[in-house]
């Protein structure tokens, strides 16, 4: 597919196939100057505002909206340059002056004399390479004067890896220069020379990260043989392979490649666009590297889909002399050379005048390139103030910012499924192609996982229900790929073959959420047999004599879970999630009129809950065990879900939450485990998942500990919001508050947006209780918040709520749409009036359509 066209434009299907209105809104102020360093840059991603106005004044929620005003997104500022770059800021605006990158043609490096040979401790067998071209990896490639070929040792992480070069006549060397592959850089190595009787040390290098490393000797050495011994190589997603493209006999100082790095002010997703004004006539190349954070932005991206198959980690383009308006789309510009991947999720973009050796002569790493402008054509859901059907605002400015930051993070995952930009691990699916879906993340795992949907689905329904089909499409597609034994795949990855023990349960709870928020009876009816096969065929096959799920039964020992944790046997988390799924399935059954199934699943849920309390409660710790099989530990996931699934009674719930606070508290949230006994999981007691923090936050609100829920929100989301990239939706936080899997970490992940439904459902207090909001409850949990108001979208129209508390009163106003009825539970028992008439008790039943005012004195 040829990518280059002049003025190509964005195909309408890429911009509009999601079926979402794209009305532009007033531009959101960019805090550009704050992005110079990572933490300050993070603050730019979420508008920093003065405390919100009181509810009687202009609501003002619109100022918290994070998303771009339209689909053509431009960078906020230039953060860095290297080498010869003229007028870097000129690329921020199109027209007028241009940014010019200049790189002279490099001088030819010295070469070994004819007859030089090379041997190695091992070398990889020939294969078809990454593009089907026959490729060799023998040691002679390191001395063949062709930097596009390389020696590759045979086995990953096998040391020492030794390369020996022998010349026909003695050579006098002041030093050598090592040129390696960007994904196989020798980190620790020595150079030795042969003196006729023994090897003599010439140089030692440790901690190297340079692709081209100059290694000078203390004094010139005359020798006929030289030995490179590598004892550690760069760790990459493809393993630790030693790769040497050239070992030059002399000092070859690397030329500084000219580059310019731009900051878009927040993470964005779509197709990058670069407008080139002109270039020298030698086909100068540019390489684009992308990253969500400055910390992991280098000469290669923090993640690209091609990384898994040995790609360079950058997108390439050869600039024509007459310039080009280049839209980065997947394909090769010249035959099988000059490849680009197209869609990316990132905040920072680095453009370097450079080219891959394998792309010569179609693209060369020198010359001049003039850039007129840089932009991105945004493909995800465009969340402008006009698109929001649900809103939130309260007296606490931090909570407001986290709510809208979570919404934007979720918007970035709502996109059309395309084989060209989905997860590269065999996730392409004809049955999803062209459909709107909720991806796992913006940058990585661009594949819809049903567990993530348990959070991101609720976030979507409460903000942009016009895109609810994104959830339905995922759920229906997974149902269509159900195995004959009732098991449901978690996603399309590995051809729908990934085995996650807990995810069929998430499919049930997420299906109930979809029905609950949308009222889609047809969906429930269409997938009734899928649901019954999960609960009545597959999970009974992994149930022990006590009625508990036990991972390992029925050949499930190798199955993973949401975090691929090495847990087996009777795990609290699996079983309390099972209780939740059984009860949600019973609700679906009741909705469809299958009362016998509803009763049966309700009874089974009670049996499992009783077994959990009898077998898995640790009275000494005052919390639920993680598992009965293995070292003693206590997990956030099991303890939190035990509360939200109503497995724990009030005493156990309060005790478990006290235990989590005492044993898992970190400055950046609460860790998902209380100790580090999980094998192969580093720093579990310092690792925070917003995915498992969400039910803990909900549990704290529901058990009357709203202050501690707000504290946990501020530690977790406050940390993410004030550290690069400021997305407030990291996939995971590791020890020290760092991204838990370094640059591989998705910094915008749908499963981390639970702060939004927590604030709407629990703090504001609105939750549906029957499909389509036919009935709902309102139970505010104010904590330290003095007022809140919000709009909750329903299929019948908006349900608006405002409440305010003073030292002596709590005043609540509700406007409910026709077709709905609700119940209000008040935060205190005192003198209460409804629309001016006195009423008894703490609960106000059967609130009908219209506007109602409740005052508690």
Automatic annotation (TrEMBL):
Keywords: Signal. Residues 765-834 form the Alpha-L-rhamnosidase C-terminal domain. PROSITE patterns: TAT (PS51318). Pfam families: Bac_rhamnosid6H, Bac_rhamnosid_C. Residues 303-335 are annotated as: Disordered. It comes from the Bacteria. Residues 440-664 form the Alpha-L-rhamnosidase six-hairpin glycosidase domain. InterPro entries: 6-hairpin_glycosidase_sf, 6hp_glycosidase-like_sf, Bac_rhamnosid6H, Bac_rhamnosid_C, Galactose-bd-like_sf, TAT_signal. Residues 1-23 form the signal peptide. This is Alpha-L-rhamnosidase.
